Amino acid sequence: MDKKLLHGAHTALITPMKDGAVSYADLESLVNAQLSSGISGLVPCGTTGESPTLSGEEHLQVIKATVEIVDKKIPVIAGTGANSTQEALELTKKADQAGADAFLLVAPYYNKPSQEGLFAHFSALAECTEKPIVLYSIPSRCGIEISTLTVARLYEKHSNICALKEAGGRSSKVSETACAVDENFVILSGDDGLTLPFMACGAKGVISVASNIIPSTVAELVNLALQENYFKARELHLEYFQFFSDIFIEPNPVPIKTLLNCKGIIESAEVRLPLTPPSANNLLLLQKMAQNLNI
Description:
The protein has 12 helices and 10 strands. By secondary structure, the protein is an alpha/beta fold.
């Protein structure tokens, strides 16, 4: 896959659920809406897709279903990371066989490996596929970050480790990474509210939660920034900045699922325990947001 296909706005897909099971009908509707929106790619089974509470069978079936519906129109970047290297290897190999175009691999969480452990973990995964790998650094959830030095070492040793989803909240990390690698390495924002600042520092797009419901807007913002039209990109950024913040008033993906349900895009806003529905006050806020949201 051409690494430039990783540029742009990629949607971190929710996993629609109803009555305790994955709703594949809603998934198909959501993916088809994404395909008609100008979005650059889709990322099933990441954090937003509730990967920690999907069974192994569900995890792979959601990836397969997404690949089939997309039908090679845009890249599918499958979330196949785990805090067990063996589990991540198995998921990545099976997702590769299912037709995923690339893989999003989160830093191992809870067991807090050293940077040398991260290097060994991601090296093992790079050797199990020839397809592109997007590293995913999100220290607030994992307790560790993938350091700039580790990213550069991995890229130097494994040409298919060619991208980073940076969700550490620091523009300086984007600048550090851009200075440490060449221009072919792709940095993507992991936070909608930081997409524009990160792109000004060298990122080439975003893996977005907001684009589940406003894909055309997020795609437009990213495309403007890629064209270095920062004046118009900033106008969009400021117009939607509060929205980008409010979709995290509850643990992700509770708010975005609630909004999708309020707008009739998915039949149910159901999430799996330990996630729970929004509080009464936050539900009222989200319902008001949905009323004001033109999509």
